[in-house]
Amino acid sequence: MAKHVVVIGGGIMGLCSAYYLKKEGHQVTVLDRSSMDGGASYVNAGYLTPSHIVPLAAPGVMAKGLKWMFNSSSPFYLKPRLNADFLRWAWYFHRSSTASKVARALPVIAEINLLSKALYEEMHSSGDLGPFQLEKNGLLMIFRTDAARRAESEVMAWARDLGLEAEELSRTALDSLQPGLRPEIEGAFHYHCDAHTTPTQLMPLLRKSLEEKGVAIRVNTEATGFKTAGGHIRSVQTPEGEVFADEVVLASGSWSPLLAKRLGLRLSLQAGKGYRIDIKGQTPVRLPAVLMETKVAVTPMEGFTRLAGTMELSGINHQIRENRVRAIARAAETYYEDFKVTEPDLAAAKCGLRPVSPDGLPYIGRPAKWENLTLATGHAMMGWSLGPITGKLISEIISEKPASMALDAFHPDRRF
Ligand SMILES: Cc1cc2nc3c(=O)[nH]c(=O)nc-3n(C[C@H](O)[C@H](O)[C@H](O)COP(=O)(O)OP(=O)(O)OC[C@H]3O[C@@H](n4cnc5c(N)ncnc54)[C@H](O)[C@@H]3O)c2cc1C
Predict the structure, then answer these.
(1) Taking a C-beta distance cutoff of 8 angstroms, is the pair 362, 378 a contact?
(2) Cβ(348)–Cβ(276) under 8 Å?
(3) Cα of 41 to ligand 1 centre, how many Å?
(4) Is 32 in the pocket of ligand 1 (CB under 6 A)?
(5) Which are the contacts of 317, defined by CB distance < 8 A and separation ≥ 6?
(6) Is 219 a pocket residue for ligand 1 (Cβ < 6 Å)?
(7) Which residue's CA is minimally distant from atom 3 of ligand 1?
(8) Ligand 1 center to residue 44 CA distance, Å?
(9) Which atom of ligand 1 is closest in space to residue 12's alpha carbon?
(10) CA 105, CA 119: separation in Å to the nearest integer?
(11) Per-residue pLDDT reduced to its tens digit, 86-96
(12) Atom 50 in ligand 1: residue holding the nearest Cα
């Protein structure tokens, strides 16, 4: 039965949910408080990453965050705050960072990533959105120290056990794929299973295609609350009036806990700020790469090269910290020869907030408290990769169809 679904948030989660809901014949309205041209879904590195099987909440990460707390150019930063939500999240993160929980998450992350990549391929070949960049050259993990090599070779072994295609490259083999690296680079791992896109190209195409299909997209419209009756949400309130809904999808990224609170839900999630620098001039970058010691991502996008990095857990704010932006630029300049980031490139840097759940797995599903609410948030560092599958799962839940994969690991009411 066709329903009117109100999707709160027009990032990749909201738009992909709208895409699959519309395919199922539902009437869809997307509300977004912004003008929908910035934020995490626009500034990300564009990677589709079956290779990123290890969640952020892994042994040793919290200790690293504490160690780097006073380093203004470190790639991971935890701002200490006496805020109950943050402290609870940090405790849950700590509890999730065990070897056994990570081992349980690995196959789930691989499965959901592979399903999503296949859906991106389907979107691409369907021509539904028009042509867009989807390059399947894999991803390099470039290292210059033996410590980084050893750490990644363990991850590659897990990835291969899960059936993902990856290999270690000697420096000579690396040079034939990616010339122009500095002499101190030792080698790389090549994850053939990965792909990349240009988010600033794809997001507007997705929005245009949805509007052409009859999805109502209301920009500069903030969801401020709900009218409810029993366990049912009747409407979403906005400053322009209420929007009646048979179903509500909460896809508001890092802001999701604020709205969840209005519904009496305690959604543990923190904003993880990241930056991007776009370089319009020539660069030596041929293949997407993670510069391992610095955690900086480099992507050859449609018409420019993007550098992306930093995970800064400092609450909801869009303050651009110059030190961190400069550290990202410096990283690229120290891995590639002839790589120059100009002052105007640096000045045009932007940031976005990743919605980070304590265990690094998304919240996809219905919380028990509300019969017509579905969550599509908390995807942390994998949100760009997981947009299509999340949208499909949301539409399967709302359409009461069998889900494409088991959803237990993503349950919004799960304990940490
Ligand atoms: C630097 C960086 C690099 C990254 N690289 C990658 C990568 O290579 N691969 C990958 O898979 N992932 C990557 N990510 C992560 C990925 O970008 C995010 O997980 C994903 O974009 C989150 O999408 P979202 O739709 O949940 O949130 P968002 O994109 O933040 O969208 C949420 C939307 O909700 C709207 N909203 C909020 N509150 C309200 C309200 N009350 N009413 C109405 N609207 C509201 C906001 O305006 C916003 O538009 C990266 C992120 C960053 C920052």
Answers:
(1) yes
(2) no
(3) 4
(4) yes
(5) 273
(6) no
(7) 44
(8) 8
(9) 25
(10) 21
(11) 999 999 999 99
(12) 44
Summarised one tens digit per residue, pLDDT across range 124-173 is: 999 999 999 999 999 999 999 999 999 999 999 999 999 999 999 999 99
Token readout for 196 is 């990349």
Which residue has tokens 């219905």? 366
CA-closest residue to ligand 1 atom 22: 383
pTM: 0.97
* 3-class secondary-structure state, position 141: strand
Q: Residue 14 is which amino acid? A: G
What distance in Å separates the CA atoms of residue 335 and residue 179, rounded to the nearest whole number? 11
Tokens of 88: 């609870």
Ligand 1 atom at shortest distance from the alpha carbon of 14: 25
Q: Domains (ranges, CATH) in the chain?
A: 4-410 (3.50.50.60)
352 within ligand 1 shell (Cβ under 6 A): yes
> Does residue 251 have its Cβ closer than 6 Å to ligand 1?
yes
Tokens at 372, concatenated: 């017509």
Quote the ligand 1 centre to 379 CA distance (angstroms).
8
For 88, other C-beta atoms within 10 Å of its C-beta total: 15
State the amino acid at position 386 in one-letter form. Answer: L
Q: Is 415 helix (H, G, I), strand (E, B) or coil?
A: coil
Q: Is 355 in the pocket of ligand 1 (CB under 6 A)?
A: yes
Q: Which residues pair with 5 in a beta bridge?
A: 28, 247
One-letter amino acid identity for 203?
M
